[in-house]
Structures are given as C-alpha cells and as structure tokens.
Design brief:
Elements: H1 8-20, H2 27-34, E1 38-47, E2 53-62, E3 70-76, H3 82-98, E4 104-110, H4 119-135, E5 144-148, H5 154-167, H6 194-207, H7 210-216, E6 226-230, H8 234-245, E7 249-255, E8 258-261, H9 268-275, E9 287-289, E10 302-305, E11 324-326, H10 335-344, E12 347-349, H11 351-354, H12 357-371, H13 380-398, H14 404-411, H15 416-441, H16 448-467
Parallel strand pairs: 3-4, 3-5, 6-7, 6-10, 10-11, 11-12
Antiparallel strand pairs: 1-2, 2-4, 7-8, 8-9
C-alpha cells in the first residue's frame, strides 16, 4: 500500500468538496460545516509499574456543534495522530446526520499500544485522560459523549463513567456521559453487535433494490451471495455472522496475520474458535492467503473491509473483483480507490452511513441513561397479556389451535434487545432510501458516497439556516 503523505482528514475534505457542489449552501456555511470546531491536544505523565515516568499524548476533537452533545469513540493505538482524530470526528458529524441521530461529531484518541501496558496502567491512563477532558468541558451528557473504538471496550468506558461520576457528585444524568458501558452500569443490550448488525441491515437493503442489483449483474437478496470479510474483530465477526445466518456464503476471512478462503464457504463461529489457538491460518478445509491483503482482491460478490483505514488505494483498487464493497471500517478506501472502482462499475456503500450501527445504538443507550429505565420494562408484560387475550379470542371463535411455535412468537413481548434491533433496522433502512433517493434525483452525482455526503451536508446546513449564526 502506498503512503505518499496520505492525509485522512484531507481525504474526508476531498469527498466533502466533491459533494458540496451538488448542494445550494453558501460558501461560508460549507466552510463552517467542513472545519473542526475544537481540537484538544493534551500530554500528561504516567507513572508506570516499574516506577518510570512516561509522557502520554492524547486528543479529543469536537468537529461540529450544530447539534449537541458531540459523539464519538476513543481509540487506543500507537498510530493515533491529530489528522486521524479530526477525520474520524468529521465522519461522525456526517454519519449522525445521515442516520438522523441528533449529535455533532467528535472523536478521541490516546497514542499508546494498549498491549504494552498492564491493566492498572491502562486504568490510570483512562482516568487521567477523563480528568483532562473534564477540566476543559470536553465530556458530559449534554456536551460530549465518548464511546469505545479500536483498542477500547466496556472496561474503559466503566472507568470513564466512574471518574466522571466521582468529579460530578449528585449529577443525576452522569451515566449519560459515555456509552458502550457494561449492561450492569447502564449499558444497553445489543450494543456490542450493533455496528456489524447495522452493516448487515444496510447492505441487505441495497441488495433488495432490484434496479441497483440489475446494474451490477446480481440477483436481488442476500441469500447465496458470496461474501469476503477483512478483519475478524467485533465489527467483522458480527457482519460475517449476520450474513451467514441470512443465507450468504462466507468465502473469505482475514486477520492481521493472514487470511483463509474456501469456495464452499467458511463457518464463522468455527473460524472464530480456531483463531483462539493464536492464528486464523490453517483452518481445516480452507486454503491460506499468502498475505492478508490478498483477500481484498478475491472473487466475491460483496467485500467487507472491517479492519483499518486506507486498505484499498490507487495501487490495488484495479484488482478488486467484488461488485459491492461495504465499508464496515472507517475510511478503508482512499479517494483514488473510489474513482477507480466507480469507473469499473462497482458499488461502494460508504462507511459514513454503513457503520453507523454503533452510534445509533449508542444513542439508544444515551436515551436510556437519561430516562433511567430499561427498554421494554414498562410495556413487555402489557404487550404479552394483550397478545394472549387476542390469541385466545381468535382460537375460541375459530375453534382451531395455534401451534406452540407460532403461539410463542405472537405472544412475545419485546425485550430491550428486540427494541434495539428494531430501532437499528428502521434507522438503516430509512437512511439507505434517503441516500438512494438523493442519488437518483440528481443523475450528476457520481456515486453513493457523494450522495451520502449531500444528504449529510443538507441536514447540517439546514440546522445552521434555521438556528442562525451566533451572535
């Protein structure tokens, strides 16, 4: 993969500019939408377990305040830099706008390799970082709400919550200061698989569009589609799993240490368990790829890059054979790759909406924290009792009995996870149609990413138009 002083934020700006010409907004408003509102860079000391002192570099970027709070994950990675965090914050603004989640975009990052620190050191880093954000008012239920990202998870979010709560005694909505928490600490069921499930819902909706599939030379529906997934982390695993459950054939999977493929299909759970031995390679019944990037160029209908950014660029894009590329990761394609794939007639389903499942369900978690009640708690039994009564009346009037399986299905009142899945499905279907309708309404718009940016720019622009510019 070529480097060439690649700027991730520059690539986001390039995509923005490409779409801006299809909107009606004033140049100044477009400039305001595009720029990051606030960038906080901080360095703080860490006393390591061996007594040595290390200076930690960290960031929090608030891209847009057109709606508050700002929302975006915190990643722990040695590659973290300001350009990357700014780009990811910008994508969060557009992502939230597209899926109608009322947040501005934000993002955080700490420049460490978490594998090189003990759990106690990671806790100290997380708590100190949270304290630095509190000092500058860069965290709070109504200000800026972090979430997990690469290298972080429920554990780190619980530390953030505890630190925020300790420094805001008596704040009743403190649990809403961060999402992606453990269920026991105010998290929401369905959050862990949310991004992968959102990827599935979005691509499934695209595959159900007859006119789009006809252009690509594919049949409608997910069943039987040959799918390759790069990355078997949380997002990649769940994306592959939901596709497999829907009848797709998973023909290729890859991780950082290599990849495997099988024309007959791979069982996602079996591969996942095999990887616990230390590597994805040498899976029974599958062949190994020499390099993990070889998966990107394999024969398949749908390719899902679900690992890191810039994996498909101007060099390897001409060799990508997939008809549909679903961007489960953030920024897996460079603008050069976009242009090449568009000319080849492939459909790129863009990250800025496709991987919005995480922030959508984070929004549901935030609402749960503000309302202080679990989803389904108030209505589950009422719904079950009502359904049982209706079913009883139907059986009495018809003189026929419903099967046990159907009875269980009809009588089931929604649990929290049912409502979360339903809300996410509605969100992704609505967003898919909004983007496609914008694309179809203007034949000059070259691709789905540009159409998605047009949708986002119009929504953020409308906020500025209606709210006005202060003062």
């Amino acid at each position: 993969m070529s480097e060439k002083h690649y700027s991730f934020f520059g690539a986001v700006e390039k995509s923005f500019d490409k779409a801006a010409k299809y909107t009606k907004w004033d140049k100044g408003v477009l400039e305001q939408i595009k720029e990051c509102n606030a960038v906080y860079q901080v360095r703080f000391p860490l006393k390591r377990d061996d007594g040595t002192i290390e200076v930690i570099e960290a960031y929090r970027v608030q891209h847009s305040h057109h709606k508050t709070p700002c929302k975006g994950g915190i990643r722990f990675a040695a590659e973290v830099n300001q350009d990357e965090v700014m780009a990811l914050a910008a994508l969060m603004t557009y992502k939230c706008a597209i899926v109608n989640v009322p947040f501005g975009g934000g993002k955080g990052g700490i420049k460490i390799n978490p594998k090189k620190y003990s759990p106690y050191e990671l806790e100290k880093i997380t708590r100190r970082y949270t304290a630095e954000l509190i000092k500058k008012n860069f965290i709070g239920p109504g200000t800026d709400v972090p979430a997990p990202d690469y290298g972080t998870g429920e554990r780190e979010m619980a530390w953030i919550l505890d630190t925020y709560g300790a420094m805001h005694p008596g704040e009743i909505d403190a649990a809403g200061c961060v999402t992606g928490k453990p269920i026991t600490q105010g998290g929401v069921r369905g959050r862990r698989e949310a991004t992968g499930l959102g990827v599935f819902f979005g691509l499934r909706e695209v595959c159900n569009m007859e006119d789009i599939m006809k252009k690509l030379g594919l049949t409608t529906g997910v069943e039987g589609k040959r799918v390759a997934v790069q990355g078997l982390g949380n997002v990649g695993y769940h994306s592959a799993k939901f596709f497999q459950d829907a009848g797709a054939i998973i023909v290729g999977l890859s991780e950082h240490d290599g990849g495997i493929y099988s024309d007959k299909g791979l069982d996602v759970d079996e591969v996942f368990n095999h990887r616990k031995k230390g590597t994805i390679l040498n899976f029974p019944g599958a062949k190994n790829f020499e390099k993990n990037t070889d998966l990107l160029e394999m024969e398949c209908d749908i390719l899902i890059p679900a690992a890191l950014e810039n994996v498909i660029d101007g060099d390897n894009a001409p060799r990508v054979k997939a008809k549909i590329i679903g961007e489960a990761a953030n920024g897996p394609l460079t603008p050069e790759a976009d242009e090449i794939l568009a000319k080849k007639g492939a459909l790129v389903v863009p990250d800025m909406y496709l991987n919005a499942g995480g922030v959508t369900v984070s929004y549901f978690e935030w609402l749960k924290n503000l309302s202080h009640v679990r989803y389904g708690r108030l209505e589950k039994r009422f719904t079950e009792n009502l359904n049982a009564h209706i079913l009883g009346q139907m059986e009495e009037l018809s003189g026929k009995k419903v099967s046990t399986e159907e009875r269980d299905f009809i009588m089931h009142g929604p649990d929290e996870v049912d409502l979360v899945y339903s809300g996410l499905e509605e969100t992704m279907i609505t967003a898919t149609h909004e983007i496609m309708n914008t694309w179809k309404s203007n034949p000059d718009i070259p691709d789905m990413r540009t159409a998605a940016y047009v949708v986002a720019i119009n929504k953020v622009g409308t906020s500025y138009a209606e709210l006005g510019i202060f003062p």
